[in-house]
Amino acid sequence: MKAYNEEWIYNREIINQAQRWHREGLVNDSQLAVIKETYPVKFRDTSAFVEIGLFLFSIVAASGGYALLGLILSDVLQESFATGLFNILLGIGIGFFVEFLIRKQGMFRNGVDNALIAFMTALLVIGLNVWLPDETPVWSRCLVSLPVLFAVVWYYGDLIVMFGLISAVYTLVFDLLNDTASADLLIPLVMMALSAGLYWLALRLDLSLRSKKNVYWSDALNLAQWMTLSLLLINGNYFFVREVLSFLLKPDLNLRGAFSGASEIALSWLFWLFTFGIPLLYGFIGTTRKNRMFLILACLGTAGAIATARNYIGVLPWSVHLTVSGLILVLISIPLIRYLREPRYGFTDVPDEDSPKEFFLDAETVGAIQAAASTQPPKGLSYGGGDFGGGGAGKEY
């Protein structure tokens, strides 16, 4: 059992794909109407700007209500047990309210439910952690929080909670390794291995579920892939390992000098190799597999690698370096844009919709869309004239 209607979510994916085809002229208005009739979606439909506004308003309202209740019950909430119980009971109450909004109001990521799910999860996690002794290490707190975060992701497929789940896993591993010998070398290597493993797991789960027409967790798993690939890139960067990680492991350093006084790290050649090698690997995978995620991260990683090299071996001032880099990018971009005005080897500069790889429908589902598009329209719709049943097409079509 899950919070949202799985069939409606799957139908929504089909309709979204049909709308992409409609914008590209592959499906006409009447066929799109038939597809919408064949695959009904009864979720509340709101615009992105409205959802953002509702999310912010819900967070403010929930926080205000929480503060007001805490103020009223301040005399009771003096002990940790009472405070933890208050947070957990309030979180459960918000959970029932979210259930009402989903079942009765047809909400599906409309801002209000996103905010309340995140707020509910935070209350449950805080409540459990308040019950723990003060000397409890960070990794133990993360370990206690993981079942709650996982359960919420499983039930709602929420993106914000998935972000918290992945963050809790990395924080747990980081804190466990923080006090070990050679932590400055062990942490980035373990984090890279963890990132690769989690990415593989998220990708396998996503492909497996989509092959079974289950797209309930597709957005959350897609976010997990972005996060794990990004953290793999970051943990392999020489600047991050030498400067940022050194500051995290030695918080007593002054922030002003944190990124300038770190000493040379062990196996520096290996992290220099990672700094440039991982973006190149991402670029190779993105190019050969036409994967937009890898291409974007490859560009960002390359920029980070160049900035890292400039930080240690650069001879030009930053102003000159940025000017020259921008000029080089312009000189590369202009001919490349002109070259890709026509599709070349699967790449084009023409604005398009999401990559087809973002929508793993099997042949049966694609056939269902085509079948729905070729059926007679529902009563009340008219295709217009034409021998071919399409928008006025005549015999010369």
Structure description:
With 397 residues, the protein is mainly α. It has a domain at 162-374. 69% of the residues lie in helices and 0% in strands. The protein is built from 14 helices and no strands. The protein has helices spanning 6-23, 29-38, 48-72, 80-105, 112-131, 138-156, 159-178, 183-211, 218-235, 238-249, 268-289, 292-313, 318-339, 363-374. 26% of the residues are buried. The chain crosses the membrane at residues 52-74, 80-102, 114-132, 160-177, 183-202, 261-282, 294-313, 319-337. It comes from Nibrella saemangeumensis. This is DUF2157 domain-containing protein.
* Cα-to-Cα separation, first versus last residue: 50 Å
Taking the sheet with the most strands, its summary is: none
| Helix percentage range | 55-70%
Strand fraction: under 5%
Q: Could you list the spans in which at least 5 consecutive residues all have pLDDT below 50?
A: 254-258, 355-361, 377-397
Q: Encode the helix/strand succession as letters.
A: HHHHHHHHHHHHHH
Judged by helices, strands and strand pairing, the structural class is mainly alpha
